Amino acid sequence: MGKAIPASKLITLFESWAPKHLAYEWDNVGLQVGSLNKPVKKVMVTLDVLENVVNEAIEKNVDLIIAHHPLLFEPLKQVDINHPKGRIIEKLLKHNITVYAAHTNLDIVTGGVSDILMKKLNIDKTDVLIKSETEKLIKLIVYVPETHAANVTSALGDAGAGHIGQYSHCSFQSKGVGAFKALEGTNPFIGEKGEIEKVNEIKLETIIKENQLSSLLAVLKDAHPYEEVAYDLIPLLNNGEKIGAGRIGSLKESMSLGDFCEFVKNKFEVPALRVTGDLESKIKKVALLGGSGKGFIHVAKRMGADVYVTGDMTFHEAQDAWQMGLHVIDPGHHVEKFMRESVKFFLEDKITDLDASVQVIVSKENTEPFQFM
Q1: What kind and span of H or E run contains 148?
Q2: What's the whole-number mean pLDDT along residues 297-317?
Q3: Sheet containing strand 359-362, strands side by side
Q4: pLDDT for 1
Q5: Are 170 and 160 in contact (CB under 8 A)?
Q6: For residue 203, what is the enclosing H or E element?
Q7: What is the arrangement of strands in the sheet containing 126-134, beginning at the earlier edge strand?
Q8: Which residues have a Cβ under 8 Å from the Cβ of 174 and sit 6 or more positions away?
Q9: Residue 256: left (phi > 0), alpha (psi -120 to 50), or beta?
Q10: Which residue, of 41, 59, 124, 331, has the greatest Cβ tally within 10 A?
């Protein structure tokens, strides 16, 4: 029978994908309300933490809410329970519900919000639109008895080690002899205390991302039979993946701007959108930034985009894009809602390997403030 998982462990698993350090400095990600020390049996993923969402969480006995948009973005000067945000905080604390937010870190990370939206548009091969940094890579070298090398190699590969381009589970193995002497107070897996033991071992080498380090070391120690695991970490000069906001890529076939607008409406499940430019124009190269991307129209143009898809476009920025010949499509900010299912699938996949009974659900409440008439 499975058991609850500490919220901190769930968040560690989640941050192996979307670490907090990727978030912009102005952002407020991480713990918002409650405690990460509490046991969790039910998680709810949501785009926003509004009062209707909190009421849903209470009704469904949710322990942890993982949201994209932070509940607490600007510093609070008071918690007035006669106002919506104050009532939300009161309800969360009263019902012992913890809230955690992953915002720009989830936008930026590979497989995050912009990648999710690009896949909706059937654009698989993309580049980063606004580069923040390049992933740092580390070579992990660990010494494993031959009898357990396959298990350790598989555990590390399943957890994301050895991912190079379109290949996973990449490693190199060489044979050798390990030697050690177990001292008093130890409980050696092989050999006797006070005796030098020699063991046929495999030297396993693989590549990991810096942001995977803590989670992969935990996996390594769980899978390795030795009481004390011998491993080396070597920083590499190899370039990892580019990290940054937004994506740019090409449609498989060009289409008119008008047809592309209908395509976007259908794929993003929106009843209407705003667009600039000649609807008969042919477009193929698409730049996209989930959420609010009005500040990056010049980047999209410089990267060669025919059209830029983003939310919260304002009048003057739309004019500027129009005048420079960059088509803009604004389907709204709420299209980021598709992150909910992706986060759910990620957590469910990670939880599968644990001796736990944790349910992950997606909020069914509507948080889109606009109606279209």
Answers
A1: none
A2: 97
A3: 30-33, 98-101, 64-67, 42-46, 359-362
A4: 44
A5: no
A6: strand 196-209
A7: 126-134, 242-256, 282-292, 307-311, 327-330, 274-275
A8: 202, 203
A9: beta
A10: 331
The 10 Å CB-count burial string (b at 16+, else e) for 259-283 is: ebbeebeebbebeebebbbeeeeeb
Rounded Cα–Cα distance for residues 69 and 101 (Å): 6
- Residue 2 banded pLDDT, cuts 50, 70, 90: low
Tell how far CA 77 is from the center of its chain: 31
208 closest CA partner among 242, 240, 174: 240
Which region among 1-5, 89-93, 136-140, 315-319 has the lowest average model confidence (pLDDT)? 1-5
195 contacts: CB under 8 Å, gap ≥ 6: 181, 182
| CA atoms of 92 and 123, how far apart (whole Å) | 39
* Per-residue pLDDT tens over the stretch 223-252: 999 999 999 999 999 988 888 999 999 999
Portion of the chain with pLDDT greater than 90, in percent: 81
* Cα–Cα separations (whole angstroms), residue 360 to 60, 102, 334, 363, 364: 11, 16, 21, 10, 13
What integer is the mean pLDDT of 110-122? 96
Max Cα separation, the chain? 82
Q: Report residue 328 CA to chain centroid gap.
A: 27
A 10 A CB-CB count for 250 gives 16
Give the whole-angstrom CA distance, residue 231 versus residue 229: 6
**Are residues 128 and 247 in contact, defined by beta-carbon separation less than 8 angstroms?**
yes
CA distance 252 to 263: 13
State how far the Cα of 371 lies from the Cα of 373, in Å rounded to an integer: 7
**Closest by CA position to 63, among listed 23, 112, 11:** 11
Q: Can you say whether the dihedral through the CA atoms of 190, 194, 199, 204 is positive or negative?
A: positive
Task: Quote the pLDDT of residue 240.
Answer: 84
Per the model's pLDDT, the better-predicted residue between 29 and 240 turns out to be 29
